[in-house]
Amino acid sequence: MRLISPAVWVLIFDRYPGDNLSEEPHESRELHSTGGLTPTARRGSENAFDRLDLESTCFEQFLLQDVRSNRPADGVFGSEAAFRHLAETMTAAGQTASLVSLTVEGASFTEHDGSSAMESSLRGCGMPLQAAIGLDCSNRDAAATADDGMANGDLAFLANLVWMEADIASSANAATAAKKILDFAFRRRQSCSMSNGHCPVLIVTFRRGADRDVREPLKSGVAEDRMHVPLWIQPHAGHACRVQALAGSFDLLPTIETFLGSAGASDEVSPPDVAQIADSS
Question: N or C: which end of the chain has fewer CB within 10 A?
Fold first, then answer.
């Protein structure tokens, strides 16, 4: 499998599970909950995102700038105009994109938050999609095969931009689902690196923060945990960013554009250094 360079993989989970990431019984989680917003804020138990904490640039307070319940599928990451601008830039550079819906056995996507709505949004703004597929990550062996059980499996991961939508909210065990999906992404990324020497940039974040009760006098407001989620960028050594230039979800598309390079950029141009982006504020 020959990866097209430069390449950016974006993995978007439908919801951040908050303190429910560990495999502890429900009662135990309630007793020991620390109320932290991010995995790095909690210690004492392993969770699916620990590897990202150690190996990535981590933005601990990534702000979701659109938390409306009725927002369109692309709303949280900017307007249709923002997606159209990225699509035009990629098309001018001869770059391609793909949409991959990731789930685990027993989970199903909902129409308003799932791949169908996102695919319609991407196609509507002119994104150069070369593939739109769905993959079940519940079987490690099946997920690791070359074609993932479908003829266009490889094609999807050969695009310059691979946009992955991951469903864990409807799974019976969000922690297990998140781990399987992350393991799949890590294996795929490693396979690309080993086969051709090009390792795609991996960005991982969430569409929605953890749900919590809002205390008085802010009952009519939005809980802070719903507005803030972590975001990780690989490759880079562990680097926690509490004050960062990449501050909000509307910054995601311009960041992707930066990693992909401007129109006409050659394959030899390396992505910008993540630490420089993080520390530039």
Answer: C
